[in-house]
Design a protein that fits this description.
The model is unreliable at 238-246 (pLDDT under 50). By secondary structure, the chain is mainly alpha-helical. The radius of gyration is 20 Å and the shape is globular. The N and C termini lie far apart (73 Å). It has helices spanning 5-34, 40-65, 80-108, 111-121, 131-164, 166-179, 188-206, 210-232, 236-240. The chain has one domain (5-237). The protein contains nine helices and no strands.
Amino acid sequence: MRPGAFDYVVLVVILLAAIFDWRWYWPRYVRSIRANMPGARMRMYRNVVVAEWVVTLYVLGLWVAKARPWSALWLGPVSPLRSGIGFFVAAIIIALLLLQARKVKKVLARPEAVVRLRKQVAADLLAPATSGERRAFWFVSITAGICEEIVFRGFLMWLIAAWTGLALAVIISSILFGCAHAYLGAAHVPKTAIVGLVLALVVVACGSLWPAIVIHAALDLNGGELGFRIKRAPSASSEATPSPTS
């Protein structure tokens, strides 16, 4: 089962989208956020959800149209043992994320510590800042978990493996995953590539995308929740500022 011309369209779209986000869309979005333009973050969330689902549905449409086996996308049935191992790893990661969130919640109870944490998330312009943005970010996180795993760990690993074999496909797809996040800054490329590599190893080990989808969505949800809580937590300076009615 060799890739065809319509398959390489996805690869071209991914590469062009990475350049587009890095050179134009993200800088424009940053300017909008810093200028306090109403709805800028919500528009960004909407565009991400729409774009990722368009690419993902295209990939799934190719599979249906060409009657390809779903196992090639790591979406086919697997043994209960391998599936169980994958979801056990996912459960461990989720437990660690919950412990992290609990620790941050305790720290946020000390207003003097909020200022320090806000400095750490000051550059995180993706994190929601309002309740409405928080709810919208849940959809962004779930979309990223489903769509990015299908596209990068499913489709791209299949596409690249057709020419290089699975081992190199795992590495190359992880590098491409990191490059797709270059808009966040050069430091994010290797970090995200490592996350992609871990997710790819989970997929190969358990033979399924589903545990990786759960892990990916949980990571994004946790990051958004922590950013939101830190942004909304009262700091020592805000508590010290008298209210207009006092």
